What does this fold into?
Amino acid sequence: MPLSLVVSVLNIKGKLYRKTQNFIEILIMRIRSFLALVITFCLTLGFIPAKTYAFSERGNAQFTDVVNTGKANDCPEIDSSSIGSISLSNGDSLKGICMHPTEVYVKVPGSKRQKSEFLSTKIISPRNNTTVTEVYGDIDSGKFTEKGGIDFQLITVLTPGGLEVPFAFSAKDLTASIPSSIEPGTELSGTTFTPNYRTGDFLDPKARAANTGVEYAQGLVALGGDDEELAKENIKVDVNGTGTVKLSITNVDSDTEEFTGTFEAVQPSDTDMGSKDPLDVKIIGQLYGRKA
It folds into this structure.
């Protein structure tokens, strides 16, 4: 092969090598610039404070971390140092309202030597399913009106004397006067509707119920319903009640428009479809809610 041809081939190879090398260097520089941009963007997002909601953190919990622990019965919580405010006006709504009972007292009838008083009780059924939650409603003319949600729970408590007291812990038809803003220290008072603990189809131990047509047990027919106490047991009636509730706000997050606090409700216990006199039940616990 002529020497000149060899030199030409080597020159061409050298030029191709230099061009390839330059292309690789330019590509590496561009990749480095792109990676630097991506890293900078990620670091910037990392330092931007996120708008985190207490209820969303609760909803993102793993099933295995919650099942059989009682955590699902708790209300969401916000930072205890939150001391902001939430403005409210006609047409606004509140939602996600949660009331978790932590203490239950029953007013037991007194005697000649001792007056009636509220006694501390123990929740025996159900222990981890007592919370009224996801309650929502509208604000109109300075009043909050409940519209729906999981707004009642059936609870049974045991008094120190061994008396089992069932009741329907309720936020149904909750109405409360509400100010133009909510902030720490705000207190709201209102009323609630307390439904029957049992429905008309519930059968008592003698198969009596309100909707079955059975108003007496066999063997007691001869009394003819003349006995007043027996008539109360035989003839089942719907006995609904009215409760009172006071909501006390302790913390408010202005950014997420969430609030937490405590509540105190007083309502009647179950009457066993009219056969028993109701007892006053006082429920105290945790409160959570947010502006819609």
Notes: The chain has a mean pLDDT of 83. The longest helix spans residues 3-46. The radius of gyration is 34 Å. The first strand starts at residue 86 and ends at 87.
